[in-house]
Amino acid sequence: xxxxxxxxxxxxxxxxxxxxxxxxKNSHKSDTIPFLLTEYNNLSIxxxxxxxxxVQLMFHTAANAVTLTEEAIGRLKSLRFDGKTDSIxxxxxxxxxxxxxxxxxxxxxxxxxxxxxxxENTNSGQYTDGKFGIDLFNNKVIEIxxxxxxxxxxxxxxxxxxxxxxxKLQNRGELLFxxxxxxxxxxxxxxxxxxxxxxxxxxxxxDKFAATNQLGEQLTITGEKTLKDSYGNAVKTKQxxxxxxxxxxxxxxxPPAGFFEGTIGRQQMSVIGGDVLKxxxxxxxxxxxxxxxxxxxxxxxxxxxx
Length: 306
Known about the structure:
Blueprint: H1 2-26, E1 31-34, E2 36-37, E3 43-49, E4 53-59, E5 66-69, H2 70-73, E6 83-89, E7 95-108, E8 111-121, E9 130-132, E10 141-145, E11 150-154, E12 165-168, E13 170-172, E14 175-184, E15 187-195, E16 203-205, H3 207-212, H4 215-218, E17 221-228, E18 234-241, E19 244-247, E20 250-253, E21 256-259, E22 270-272, H5 274-277, E23 280-284, E24 290-295
Parallel strand pairs: 4-9, 5-8, 15-22, 16-21
Antiparallel strand pairs: 1-11, 2-3, 3-4, 3-7, 5-9, 6-7, 7-8, 10-11, 10-23, 12-24, 13-14, 14-15, 14-19, 16-22, 17-18, 18-21, 19-20, 23-24
């Protein structure tokens, strides 16, 4: 009887060890970063600099550096600036001078980066001290979940990805674009749109697209708006309503759309901003080849007048 019990015990332990071994092979660690979605459609994330200073950074899908505003830098204790450059271009084609701090420690949640350069500029999203981009998450799958207000970093695509719509990304020098189809009256126009979570609005057209398709004549103008880039350069945009924008099988009805009229070359990229992006939970693959969309609880909320 004892031999039989021992046999069953060893068999059970062997089975358990095998299950744990398989689980270890199939399980992948994920890092979770909470964010606050601000009233300006920005993702604000708490970060620690050099184990001393606490800042709120905007997660910016169209940025590839860590920056802090002049105002925020004025109250921080740990930054040391060793250089500056005057070759940074903004969307108005102006050259901007900026100081930089070459080597800092940055901690976000359980993740830590060392020797991080930090650049100084003038503006960031409202309620934030600066911004960082997806370059910090190189080789990671990035999941942005607006239902739970978290960013999850994975080694591979999450298990529920089959319920998402898959779209091809255009990767242009670390900037990520998707193709959309704009419907205006009886015409349809294809265009590439930069994923730009730092832009609070919905749609912003590039100059060439707006001029070629005569958007100023075809769309009803609802007003004007002054935008400022990271270095405080101001530009005015025409505001309108786009009847329909479609990317993949997803259709957006009557999103607000802005464009620059009369100054060709100032705005060289069309963008999809935070007022559209927040309506979908998104997954960006580790190679930045595809993005996956799934509607969330914000999908049918009114567009904000920002």
